[in-house]
Amino acid sequence: MKTKDALFEFLLRLADDRLVLGHRTSEWCGHGPILEEDIALANLALDHIGQANNLLEYAAEVENEGRDADDLAYFRNTREFRNIKMVELPIGDFGFTIVRELLFSAFNLHYLDRLKQTSDKQLAGLASKAYSETQYHLRHSKQWTLRLGDGTDESHRRIQSSLNELWPYTGELFDEDEIEEHLVFELNIPNKEPVRSGWNQTINEVLEEAGLERPADDQYMQSGGRTGFHTEHLGSMLAEMQQLPRAYPDAEW
Amino acid sequence: MKSTSLHINKKQVLDWLKEVKDPEIPVLDVVEMGIVREVEIKENSITVKITPTHSGCPAMQAIENSIISLLHEKGIKKFSVKKDFSASWTTDWMSDEARKKLKDYGIAPPKYRADQQIDQPISERSIECPYCESTNTSLQSEFGSTACKAQFYCHNCEQAFEHFKCH
Fold first, then answer.
1. pTM, to two decimals
2. Nearest-by-Cβ selection for A125 from B85, B140, B147
3. To the nearest whole angstrom, how far is the Cα of B140 from the nearest Cα of chain A?
């Protein structure tokens, strides 16, 4: 396996998680429960999409075949996307979006902290930048999880139900394959398993304070996103996200 | 033989770059904000390296375009503007002068580094009101009108203001 090819795949994985989650969270824009949350969620989405853009720019540079970030974002098909399934699910209610951001940002806080140590300077810089932004995301999701979990009967019921629904998608956060093993060796990227204990600690603290029950770990865990196998949701999402540049390929702002 | 070397130095280019202001906060220039990381001058070409403040900052495109226009205007024929991610932008790079300008403009400047406040309870932050300088202020939301700003309210002079977030 060539390091260049492995790095390209790895960058797509990081980028696609953020591009898809960013797009999903941005669907709240104009529909937030209160004005401050409309702004907050739009800001989270902006961070995610900005990170995706930076990662895709770097991926295009690594691939070196004349594609740019826009080509990668708008002209790849569903089977070429490398995000985990959790981020492509529809936004659900406010609590569902919050729990998803919580699970994702808790993972990335610990993971990006380690990814800063990679020998690839560009990637280290990108990880460092994303890490600072993730702190704000995590704080935001934690605060809302507490309010909803320890809120009314209805808010508690809804957010517990969202947590239960999302749990089978959390296993995929920790999936690794030979592409990452290769980069652990060549570029000192972190292994994912050691991140699990940090993630568990962060999640457990919030759930306990919020009065929420942690779902069982010994259940079937979804996977496949990293190699292009997605739920039925990604196709429709991409159709919406990609339709303008595909309909008008020469369009410019 | 006609020389192809440029008769300018790094300081000259940096002075030029001070004409490029942050589109959202026009009292600040891109040099004092720490956005311009490096200016390299080789025989007949200039390379300006910039780094984004926040990952999704939409002003970066405008800043890049402004730098390109500026260098054209100054008659530079060969140049490039590159994004450099190797060091992550932090509010620590903002000069004291820049912080003062922010305050005078009505935006509370950054106080801590983001990693110093990961779990700091919101009630423990004391951000000074840029209008009346009181610390009797409270955070309304960590997200504001742009990626870099948070919303605060001053109980003393009863005005809302924005705070440039520590990053």
1. 0.92
2. B85
3. 8
Q: In this complex, is the C-beta atom of B151 within 8 Å of any C-beta atom belonging to chain A?
A: yes
Strands B36-42 and B45-50, by their bridges, are: antiparallel
Structural domain contains residue A60: yes
Report the candidate in B117, B148, B118 with the shortest Cα–Cα distance to residue B55: B148
Q: Tell me the H-state helices in chain A.
A: 3-26, 35-63, 69-74, 94-115, 121-149, 153-166, 178-187, 195-210, 232-247
Q: Report the residue of chain A nearest B113, measured CA to CA.
A: A132
Chain B CA closest to residue A253: B61
Per CB-CB distance under 8 Å, the chain B contacts of A133 are 54-55, 167
A contacts of B165 (beta carbons < 8 Å): 136
Tracing tokens 């749990």 back to the chain, one arrives at A167
CATH number at residue A223: 1.20.1260.10
Mutation for A interface: B60, B85, B90, most A CBs within 10 A:
B85
Residue of A nearest to B60 (CA): A50
Owning domain of residue A205: 3-167+179-247
Low-confidence ranges of chain B (pLDDT < 50): 1-4
Query: How many angstroms separate the CA atoms of A231 and A166, rounded?
Result: 14
Q: Looking at A72-81, A179-188, B21-30, B121-130, which range is the least confident one?
A: B121-130
Determine the pLDDT at residue B95.
86
Of 3.30.300.130, 3.40.225.10, 3.20.20.70, 3.90.180.10, which CATH number belongs to B10-89? 3.30.300.130
Q: In what order do the strands lie in the sheet with B107-108?
A: B107-108, B159-164, B149-154, B137-141
**Span of A161-170, A206-215, B51-60 with lowest mean pLDDT:** B51-60
Of B83, B119, B141, the CB nearest to A40: B141
B56–A46 C-beta distance less than 8 A = yes
The rounded distance, in Å, linking the Cα atoms of A17 and A25 is 12
Task: Kindly provide the ipTM of the predicted complex, given to two decimals.
Answer: 0.85
Tell me, letter by letter, the H, E, C secondary structure of B77-114.
CCEEEEECCCCCCCHHHCCHHHHHHHHHHCEECCCCCH
Residue B50 token pair:
């910039």
